[in-house]
Amino acid sequence: MLNREELKKIIGSLEPDATFSEGTQLLEVTVPAEKLYALAEKLKSDSRTTFDYMINHTAIDFVKNFTVVYHLESTEMRHLVVLKSILEDKDNAKVDSLSALYPAVEYFEREVFDLFGIQYNNHPYLKRFFMEDGAGFPLRKDYRDEVNIIER
Amino acid sequence: MTSNIYDFSTLTGQIHTWLSGLMSPGWVTFTEFVLVGLVFLLAYALLGLFLVYAERKVCAFMQNRVGPNRVGKWGIIQTIADLIKLLLKELIPIRKSDPFLFNLAPFIVIICSFLAMAAIPYAKGLQAIDFNIGVFYVMAVSSLSVVGILLAGWSSNSKYSLIGAMRSGAQIVSYELSVGLSLLSIIVFAGTMQLSGIVESQANGWWIFKGHIPAVISFIIFLIASTAEINRGPFDLAEAESELTAGFHTEYSGIKFAFFFLAEYMNMFIVSAIAATVFLGGWMPLHIGNWEGFNQIMDYIPSIIWFIGKTFFVIWVIMWFKWTFPRLRIDQLLTLEWKYLLPISLFNIILIAFIVLMGWHF
Amino acid sequence: MSEEIIKDVIIGENEEYIVNMGPQHPSTHGVLRLEVCLKGETVKYLIPHIGYIHRGIEKMTEALTYPQIIHLTDRMDYLSAHINNEAVCLVVEDAMQIEVPERVKYIRTILDELNRLASHQLWWSAFGMDLGALTTFFYGLRDREYILDIFEESFGSRLLHSFVMPGGLMHDIHPNFQKRTKEFITYFRKKLPEYDQLLTGNVIFHNRSKGIGYMSKETAIGYGVTGPSGRGSGFSCDIRKIAPYGAYDKVQFNEILETEGDTFARYQVRMREMWESLNIIEQLIDNIPEGDYTAKMKPIIKLPAGEYFRRVETARGELAVYVVSDGNKSPYRMRFRTPNFSNLFVMNEIAKGCKIADLIAISGSLDLVIPDIDR
What we know:
The complex is a heterotrimer of chains A (152), B (362) and C (375). By secondary structure, chain A is of the alpha/beta class. Chain A contains three helices and seven strands, in the order H-E-E-H-E-E-E-E-H-E. Chain A has helices at 4-14, 36-45, 105-116, and strands at residues 19-20, 28-30, 53-61, 66-73, 80-87, 94-96, 119-121. The model of chain A has no long low-confidence stretch (mean pLDDT 82). Chain B is mostly helical and 362 residues long. Chain B folds into two domains: 7-88, no CATH class; 91-358, no CATH class. In chain B, helix 4 (99-117) runs antiparallel to helix 6 (145-155), helix 4 runs parallel beside helix 12 and helix 10 packs antiparallel against helix 15. Chain C has helices spanning 2-9, 57-61, 66-73, 81-96, 102-130, 136-155, 177-200, 203-209, 217-223, 227-231, 239-242, 263-285, 339-345, 347-351, 356-366, 370-374, and strands spanning 16-21, 33-39, 42-49, 164-165, 168-169, 306-313, 318-325, 333-337. In chain C, the strands form three sheets. Chain C has a three-stranded antiparallel β-sheet with strand order 1-2-3. A three-stranded antiparallel β-sheet of chain C has the order 6-7-8. The N and C termini of chain C lie far apart (45 Å). Chain B binds chain C through residues 59, 62-65, 96-98, 154-155, 157, 159-160, 162-163, 167, 233-234, 236-237, 240-245, 322-332, and chain C through 1-2, 4-5, 8-9, 17, 19, 25-27, 41, 128-135, 137-139, 142, 198-199, 202, 204-205, 207-208, 355-358, 360.
């Protein structure tokens, strides 16, 4: 199990563009969307990190952008990392699919596509999951459903 | 020797003479046909209802439950209430099904089980038709029900039904062999195919005791194979509830479903009756060799009680199977038949033929 | 007429045809639809279709306060309701840096394990039913009743009790709780061997489960199959060991691992986990420390702005709660990574080439709870 600083150093050397957030619960790495796949591939195959288990993938609508979040764990070394990528263009949000690396993420991505409308490149079966076609993207903050939604 | 067993043919003979005094011989025959038909219909319905009730109680006993206990004393009328419910239910027509075959299938199944009932000797002298090929006849008509099941599955135009029917076809056709061979082993012992003759041949001991170990093997094979033949658990693949919802009768409702349901229970009764007749002496009381005193006492119990007791013992064993074992998979089912039961029964027959040839049996 | 029927039944080339298992099917354990492509009885491929009871819990959380959210988490995996509640509570306590009293930790852990036992009992019952052994259902439910009675006495509710609150418990446990739990342990220790006698040793059961639905360790990790299903493949994924919460660091227990990866291995993991759960409860039940049943909490719970991530081990696997807070009294975004979601989608991988009957056995051995998938 590597500690935070060691992980930071390794990830920094693997991907110079990566930025790290301070004062967070877990190590958070933010990379540009187009570098995401390359970094994930390195993180999985590198023998120092071996992030082979995708715990969770989701997205957050920060009104001005979408942030896609990946929680990765190494099943051998038991360290965790949070990969983040900010998608500025909300109408045409696109990110590379990681399903070639982690089979599990294929379905998380389908869910995110269904609820946020984020497109994934090279996704094997990008179809809506829960909602009907044309039902809108309910987890976006600007989603309005006059009948069912509870307003904060 | 068995003089004090009540012979039902005296009763039927009395009825015959009474009727002959009233009308011409043609009408007598006709009236007797109608009477026999009515008696069988009534017996069929009552037995079916009772078997459903018995199954529920046995199942409840196996599962730490009470079973039906609200309608009537100990829930006896529950099955009648359920029958009325089934009678009143709507018969749902299936779009794109083959209506003629779809409606015909339940009748084929129920008629086959009805036909088989005719040849069973219920008590001394109480038998509708005493064929000289009785065993052969019962096997033939009871295996005809596979036609009904196949038609039901195919004509419903449902994939679950079709899978269920195909499974059932493969299963019944395969297990028919083992049933036949295990019955054949007792025919070799008894030297006759007439059911009454087989019962008479057990006057000094039942075949399961007289026939050494091969008869016991035949009995076990018959139990397994006949359980498979009547589509009951653990061989209920044709209607495997957790896989195919209800298999071949998925699309049936109301009384048509009730026909399948009733036929399944009556088939269970028929195979149990055959097992009791062929292996356990039928209506013949328990006789041991030359113990005259013991045999006399046994004769005081009416023959019909012996028959019903043995039959329900076998029924109970079959129910016990169902509520204990997980279901087999279709390939395992066929493996069991073709790789194990069939070679064993073939070998068993040769062994029995040898024993009979040498005169080693009692 | 007859040609029309044949054309209808057989769809594709090579005599392949598609059967929709569900949404109403006796053994999908809920409204799950499996689009199964069959050739004869052999499964060519299957596509799971979900969303029939999607209630948008993640969206609803954005308008609710944290104590309210707890009542929604019950409804995800209703068979490990308590563990789901605890996940949210742990996130809130983490974020607000609240130290909960020792008594609370002990009680929570006991309830976790009781809930796990109840869940495994129901799984055992239903798994037997899936394989056609109908009697198992009543044996399992008979013993589950004891646990539910204990729950009912202490929390007033049998299934969805929402007994845990951020900072502690709703109220203290019932005075009878310890006595009855101990009675249950002695009772269930006698009854567990009955389970083995009825099903585990059966030859038909062995044939139906051994070598069926093989899942390698790599597949399990790749698809994120956690919980007993993953541990049946040798994937060491027990959060109770990896990141202990509650009183799990104070008890001795083993992480159950089987390496065969087939249906029988997953079955064995759960059977052995029941024994292990009994051990854990036994170690804790006599040592519940005296003290408060809740920490001092502010009347309105507001999480400091930031992101929080917490994992717990439910009866079916790893439940991760990911909260993004903007400092308000309800979360900005709340994400539940539910175990069944990942466990379901491995089915296409492991069920290819098996028979229909095996498909049912596999889905039974994965122990799916559909509301947990749909959320």
